[in-house]
Amino acid sequence: MDFGRRPWWMNGLFAFCLFMMFAYLPWDFFWKSVADDEEVWFGFLLRGWAAKATEPLHFAIYAAGAYGFWRMRAWMHPWAALYVLQIAIGMLVWSLTDALGRGRSLALGLVPFAVFAALAFQLWRARGHFNTRAG
Q: Looking at the DSSP assignment, which residues form a beta bridge with residue 39?
């Protein structure tokens, strides 16, 4: 796996993608009941069958991320940065629209937004870490 070819924080993203792909999403899809299923897209919560139907797309995203970080593929730049940026924006949207966050203030959404935006910025700057060869 050669963890020395990427910065520590990128190894963390790689490990997270592996966890989501091999542990969490299979459990979520195959064992979690439809009634309990939830997925978040762009800051909006989907429940039940809508959530269950979108899980294969989340699986594909994390599988692509795991493969891209493993092989340090050139196509990961800019896609990884853009995906993490949409998560940052989704955190902001979530804080303003979800019943759990509504009315608690924009400040609650700014903290996770800042964390994910900083991570997206790091991914954007990491172009040199990814292979420039096709593949």
A: 46
